[in-house]
Amino acid sequence: MEHVPVLLQESVEILLGGSRVVAGAAVIVDATFGGGGHTRRLLECGHDKVAVVAIDRDPAAIARSDSLQQDFGERFKLLPGNFSDLEQLLDQAGIGKIDGLLLDIGLSSFQLEEGARGFSFQSDGPLDMRMDPDAGEPAAAIIREADCDTLIRIFRDFGEEPYAGAIARKIVAARVQKPFLTTHSLAQLIADMVPDYKRSRRHPATKVFQALRIVVNDELGALEKVLKAGLERLSQGGRMVVISYHSLEDRLVKRFFRESAKGCICPPGIPVCGCGRISRVKIINRSGLRPQRVEIERNPRSRSACLRAIERL
């Protein structure tokens, strides 16, 4: 099983192109360590004064960090935890300002292919989906306990599922007879509602699984929190790179970047600015970067990725 980092070259080039990184000693935070591919490339391509601090709450990802420690020594440090706690984690490690921040919001190949984690319906396993298996409630608890209106809201708001109502009602009716405990049992119920789904590129359960994973891990709340904390921690000239994989995440990132880049908001015609607002960041790529065809062919999971980046002013 191999994890293939998405938009690897693009993200590394942007992060290593920051003025502080080019000038000398720099600290880059990979807040979504996962398979470690981005971290390794940053350490390989950065000069010997570039250090990478990685963050992850997945025990399996933490275990994979040993080889990087052996290869790069003090230039690499891993902080176990949730990236939404970025400020606390950096404070505990004695780290102040940082010169780069990477957020690759997608799941790693390891998580998707490990059936016991319950992230994917491709392999049968417990209906769990927790990034940290020791924290919070698994997806099975939501499917078992949430009322129909709550399930509809989850599937509609976090999965943008057009058949949210029909799926939720079917789940509520079926769970009376038998609880949903595995990924295949839930995916099969949804697939049975769309008998010709095999003609589509996407399994009909995709959006429901996305919605459940987002809610189980409070992904949007965590993303909003780390964006704010990350901007405060960035040094002048420091850069933030965010790779997202669905429209909910991308809209949140794009909105935050645009608000942070906005300068004076006084009405036109006022000779002197009264609001005092100044741009905090420069947007590096307004349209977002997408994987090239060659990368998508090599790694089909990258097809929905979008990279956005800013530089602290």
In words, what does this structure look like?
This protein is an alpha/beta fold. It has 2 domains: 197 residues, Rossmann fold (3-Layer(aba) Sandwich), CATH 3.40.50; 85 residues, DNA polymerase, domain 1 (Orthogonal Bundle). Helices cover 43% and strands 14% of the residues. The chain has 15 helices and 7 strands. It has a 7-stranded mixed beta sheet, with helices on both faces. Helix 13 packs parallel to helix 14. The longest helix has 15 residues. The chain starts with 7 loop residues before the first helix and ends with a strand. The model has no long low-confidence stretch (mean pLDDT 87).
Q: Termini separation (Å)?
A: 41 Å
Could you spell the SSE succession in H and E letters?
Answer: HHEHEHHEHEHHHHHHHEHEHE
CATH class identity of the largest domain: Alpha Beta
Q: Provide a count of the helices.
A: 15
What is the second-level CATH architecture of the largest domain? 3-Layer(aba) Sandwich
Strand content: 5-15%
Label the overall shape: globular
